Amino acid sequence: MSAETLKKVERFESFLKQDPSNAHLIKDLFKLYLEAKLPEKAYAIFQKHTVVFAQDDGLLFQGASLHMSHGDFAGAVELLQTLHSKHSQEFGIAFNLAYSLFYLRDFLSSQKTLAPFLTGDTATPSVLKLAARNSHFLHEYTTAIHYLDQLLSQTPDDAEALGMQALILLDSTEDMPASVVELAEKALAIDPNQHEALLALSQYALAQKDIDKILSTTSQAVTAHPQSGRAWSYKGQSDMLTLNLAEAEKSLDKATQFMVDHIGTWHALGWTCLLNDKIEKAYQAFQAALDLDRNFGESHGGMAIIQVLQGQTEDAEKSIRRGLGLNPDGYSARYAKALLLEKAGKTQDAQQLMQEILSSDLGSEAKMFIELLNNKSLLSSQQLH
Prior knowledge:
0% strand; disordered C terminus; mainly alpha
């Protein structure tokens, strides 16, 4: 800031102290703060005098941008929705509104706001990426890939788009297409810390049980993106595969901090705590999953295991019934049932059920937890392999 600008700022601040309700002075000082690149002061005066800016759409838009830059997306949405109702075809307003709605996890509203701008000159890389992200979270994988194909046809070396495409391809299928690795590695050659590419390689390596690759990619992912819940979840799973259970618990704790509404991550933390003999913390993890949605069989099954271990047989039986009612093939409810059979002295039946569980078509993560628990021998009888 030049000395002249600083003097001007100080002069206007002095004027406002003498006349603190002067709307013209408030607006002029706000604009001066922006011009002088003093965003913190601009944000403070905007928050204090929001009503003064209510009739000035240009300044409201700048105020909304300040809310966004400070992570207050709810505050930004409130202002931008007002502006959007009057200027629905204004690209800057619509994009910022869609962007803020995305960060509030209202993916459907974000996508609807973007819709008029997904063709023609307004279909910029930023717009197409945001549309692809919305579609990804809405599980509209084909649509997401379409937007990324459109983007990559224009800018084939866009690392972010390449990484996103790799991750979405993985999420869209039970298979592990080799093209995922090619896309992710191409993205990382351009940007060595590209977030989605690291996630895609981590997920791929976990599925392949490629220990060296898992350890390197998950460590790089959490170092480069320490607020990525998915990165911490993969790090926790890699710790689990290498039997570093204490570190796995720490990683999954981190994951739940950043993905508080992701039920599967609470399940993983619950299983890890069971392996670490932290029954109360495991209970809290499965309860968090149930609080999010009581219609997941694995949440009830996990709770049933804890109830068996705590001697709450009647409650465990109820949880097992709920779990199997929601998912007859649920591995956690069946595992709890095996524990109950063992507790009742029906060792052969318990072993037979465990054999059925281990030979059934479990997902890689589920199978890993069951095998580790079985090796830990929560069942007091001989281990099954």
